[in-house]
């Protein structure tokens, strides 16, 4: 499978964009009530936890933190939470968030790669990333997230 790669230019500072990736108050708005739980130490666990099939503490995504460079890069392995598997194998991929100041805005790149050819989460990820990236951009630029209706 090919990598999923997205680049957005956001009318905000690298500090604001970085906060949207790691600060609970931003992450919760962008990821539909989930927060990121991590020590932010490379080699340790990173989880996105929130309301879902297993209650308020449903693990939606988890992995190992590979790189934590504030205002520049957040990289981690990616596996879907157990409630999404339904008897399927849990494949690992990699997510890289990269920030770069460009003039008075910030370029945010997301690369989701290292996919296993049989990973069933590829298509849902491609669809979901557009919502998440749009929410990041909109939240930073307007102070609000988007209303995608009852689907999310």
TrEMBL record:
InterPro entries: ASHA1/2-like_C, START-like_dom_sf. It holds the Pfam family AHSA1. Residues 13-141 form the Activator of Hsp90 ATPase homologue 1/2-like C-terminal domain. It comes from the Bacteria. Belongs to the AHA1 family. This is Polyketide cyclase. The lineage of its organism: Bacteria, Bacillati, Bacillota, Bacilli, Bacillales.
């Amino acid at each position: 499978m090919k990598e999923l790669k997205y680049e957005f230019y956001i009318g905000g500072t690298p500090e604001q964009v970085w906060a949207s990736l790691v600060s609970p108050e931003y992450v919760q708005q962008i990821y539909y009530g989930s927060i990121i739980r991590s020590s932010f130490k490379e080699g340790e666990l990173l989880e996105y936890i929130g309301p879902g099939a297993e209650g308020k503490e449903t693990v939606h995504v988890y992995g190992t933190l590979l790189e934590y460079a504030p205002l520049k890069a957040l990289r981690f392995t990616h596996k879907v939470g157990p409630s999404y598997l339904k008897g399927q194998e849990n494949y690992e991929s990699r997510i890289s968030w990269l920030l770069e100041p460009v003039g008075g805005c910030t370029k945010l790149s997301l690369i989701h790669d290292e996919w296993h050819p049989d990973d069933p989460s590829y298509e849902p990820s491609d669809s979901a990333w557009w919502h998440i990236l749009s929410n990041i951009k909109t939240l930073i630029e307007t102070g609000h997230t988007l209303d995608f209706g009852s689907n999310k």
